[in-house]
Amino acid sequence: MVKKKLPVGIDDFKEIIDNNYYLIDKSLLIDELLNKKSKVTLLPRPRRFGKTLNMSMLNYFFNVENKKVNKELFNGLDILNTDKMVYQGEYPVIYISLKDIKVNNWELCLNKLHLLIQAEYSKYGIILERKRENQETSLLELSRILYEKHNKKVIILIDEYDTPLVTAHSQGYYDEAIFFFRNFLSAALKGNPYLEFAVLTGILRVAKESIFSGLNNLTVSTILDNDFNYFGLTENEVEKALKYYNLDYELEEVKKWYNGYTFGEKLVYNPWSLINFLNKNKLDAYWINTSDNALIKQLLAKNDKKVFEELELIFKDEVIWETISENIIFDDLNNINTIWSLMLFSGYLTYEKMRVSSITGLKSYSLKIPNQEIKSFFRQSFIETYTKGDVYFYGTMMEDLFLGNLDSFVNKFKKMYLSAVSYHDAGDSEKYYHHFMLGVLLTLGDKYIITSNRESGYGRYDIALEPKDKNNYGLIFEFKIGDKNSIEAKSKEALNQINEKKYDVSMKNNGVLKVIKIGMAFSGKDVAVESEIN
């Protein structure tokens, strides 16, 4: 039997149906929207989790244009078994996606938005004047025009509403963007007499005071909520797809790579990665290569002590508890605590449990890395941070360490350190260098159990990497700081401390046969290294 084609990169609902692509039915989203019927519904979900396809489906379902043709698209889907087909083709629809508004200055952003809105106007033979006041009220005005044409209120669908704001923040024109989009969205969604209802999708719930000020009719459903769970793929949907393409024997590996996201009380898979896996029959990191990781990398590059300590835990597949804010305020992104909320809602972390403080009433969530694909993103991010993007060089350096080629490792490490340290504020605190090294070594988490500041022998080592395969080398690091003239002696002192205090005792007791001991001493951009194997 000839299998259906996979809709790789196709998010137009009609194109998928017309060309008989493989479709996972999410049409009951329509039923839930109509049952709850909020005036404005915001559905933040991670990128590439089916938002655009679902919004396209809503457009074809509700749109009064081409009503009869569009009705055929829903043959055989779950929505037919509800009482909601009476709403099919009953409304004029304004459907725009802001996902491609990613430019480096405000003027280009405004121009790109104008072209986007003009395309909607052109469907009705209307020209939108290029004036600021016309652009801010363009959706409101188009609502009026469509209402007068059809004598029916309008549905507004805005996909990826926050993309221009995320881009504006990273490119330095956020103040101009937030002022405009606040007016743009408020005109269309607040007090619009021609509006039936609106649905917005995005990645983040931008704080209400930033963009949804005064919008009292806004219902928000994030990944922390139990409703509108029609994004991502359930285990049953994945099993059916794997079976259809004769790949069900890969289920356990697919789970490791692409499962692990918690949306409400459901465990879901990344749909973009799953479709690409089915297409190529190769386990790989598909999702992270399509995402804009700039904000995450910007926060990781701060080299914050608390972040690194907790990343150390989640790299070991442990969980961390953090207070999560559902409202992202971009002005607070310099606050390092924001990184956990940003990572959770963007899909880089997931949560297992929630608890409420009996004292403050604040909610905190147990966070972890969801799967192998995201772990590979963090690994890549640390490599790029500490090697200026020279991944191959980093790889050979770590291979030398893994194989015990210490002279080669030391030479490469000194070269890497000289380049990388300029990206950080090197100081006179041993903790700074400790976290620098932890960032370098965290990428080895698949082959080692990484610990720091733990007791062993007669003291506490700085960092230890115990191999999961006991036949491989164990690694113990001790760090010192000094001035440029003393670091050679200090590195020898660090190595002697490892031996004198027998930091390798615990590892040897656990069956590790050989241990690499490395003493390092730092002074600003200078480093000295002493090492041995026994």
Largest sheet: 5 strands, parallel
The tally of beta strands, per DSSP, is 17
State which percent range the strand residues make up.
15-25%
Separate helix tally = 22
List the strand order in the largest sheet.
2-3-4-1-5
Assign an overall shape: elongated
Number of domains: 4
Please write the CATH class name of the largest domain.
Answer: Alpha Beta
Point out poorly predicted stretches. Answer: none
How many angstroms separate the termini?
61 Å
Task: Output the CATH topology of the largest domain.
Answer: Rossmann fold
**Helix/strand/pairing category:** alpha/beta
> What is the mean pLDDT?
88
- As a percent range, the share of helical residues equals 40-55%
Query: Which architecture of the largest domain does the CATH hierarchy give at level 2?
Result: 3-Layer(aba) Sandwich
What Rg, in angstroms, do the CA atoms define? 27 Å
Protein architecture, described:
A hairpin with a 2-residue loop joins strand 12 and strand 13. Helix 7 runs parallel beside helix 9. The protein is 42% helix and 17% strand. The mean pLDDT is 88. The chain folds into four domains: 208 residues, 3-Layer(aba) Sandwich (Rossmann fold); 46 residues, no CATH class; 81 residues, no CATH class; 134 residues, tt1808, chain A, CATH 3.90.1570. By secondary structure, it is an alpha/beta fold. The strands form five sheets. The chain has a five-stranded parallel β-sheet, sandwiched between helices. It has a five-stranded mixed β-sheet with strand order 11-14-15-16-17, with helices on both faces. It has a three-stranded antiparallel β-sheet with strand order 8-10-9. It is built from 22 helices and 17 strands.
